[in-house]
Specification:
Elements lengths: L5 E3 L8 E6 L23 H15 L16 E3 L11 E4 L5 E6 L3 E7 L5 E6 L1 H6 L1 H9 L5 E5 L9 E2 L1 H8 L3 H4 L2 E3 L5 E3 L1 H11 L4 E4 L14 H4 L5 E7 L5
Parallel strand pairs: 3-4, 8-12
Antiparallel strand pairs: 1-2, 2-13, 4-7, 5-13, 6-7, 6-8, 9-11, 10-11
Length: 248
């Protein structure tokens, strides 16, 4: 069987919780999607995407097919145990063992969340629009008290590659000095945004202080990661979070 490379979450969740992000290594996609593209909405050959998803499921021995969301940079959160495939949402949570939450990314932050006791987990697609819309807060509300949660930020674009205009700075930070500290001057009136820092700030203010990850930059590592900002036309990685069944 072809072996895939993944980035496993290194965080404080119990062993019964599994969380990881795939890389682009392996897979059947070609051209700009070369590798393990798992996004079926980016223009890649549908047969290649289906083969990649099947390969991923076999290689990772997933307990079930992931719930694939139709992500729209919004704030909707769904229960992965009852939602149907392709539901329009940007986060999914579950309290059921064997249900796999999933988000697709190629620069946005894939955020994994779990209760300290491992009874509830979630996967969240966090771009700057979703951050503004409140997808993080909505997901936290579905899981419980922030102090009882642990978080992991998977591979995403770092400040070195994330240039934004003044209008984005304004909507993300406004008069918030802590949020404004997550930006550095870029070319002209542009700024370089620290999306990881902005997410950490949101989590901290919600009481989630046990936050890991944020060290992998998609923009800077074309061998392992897709990056929409870097390449324009690109594939997508998947971040999966689930509770393992007792027999696992």
């Amino acid at each position: 069987m072809q072996r895939l490379e993944v980035v496993n979450a290194s965080w404080s969740a119990p062993d019964s919780v599994r969380a990881l992000t795939t890389t682009r290594l392996g897979g059947a996609s070609a051209g700009p999607f070369q590798g393990l593209n798992l996004g079926d909405h980016v223009g890649d050959d549908s047969a290649a995407v289906a083969a990649n998803r099947a390969l991923m499921a076999r290689s990772l021995r997933l307990p079930a097919e992931p719930l694939w969301l139709a992500q729209v940079h919004g704030s909707t959160v769904v229960d992965a145990g009852v939602a149907g495939q392709g539901v329009q949402a940007d986060a999914a949570w579950t309290d059921r063992a064997g249900v796999v939450c999933a988000v697709l990314t190629a620069d946005c932050i894939p955020l994994a969340l779990a209760t300290r006791c491992g009874t509830r987990v979630a996967a969240v697609h966090v771009g700057w629009r979703g951050l503004v819309a409140g997808v993080v807060e909505n997901t936290l509300a579905a899981l419980g008290s922030g102090r009882e949660l642990v978080a992991w930020m998977g591979p995403a674009i770092s400040r070195r590659g994330f240039e934004v205009g003044p209008e984005v700075v304004e909507v993300l930070a406004g008069d918030d000095e802590e949020a404004r500290s997550c930006f550095r001057p870029g070319a002209g009136d542009r700024s370089m945004a620290d999306l990881f820092g902005l997410l950490r700030l949101r989590l901290d203010r919600a009481g989630v202080v046990d936050v890991a990850g944020g060290e992998y930059c998609t923009f800077s590592d074309p061998e392992r990661f897709y990056s929409h900002r870097r390449d324009g036309l690109s594939g997508r990685m998947a971040t999966l979070v689930w509770r393992a069944a007792e027999k696992d």
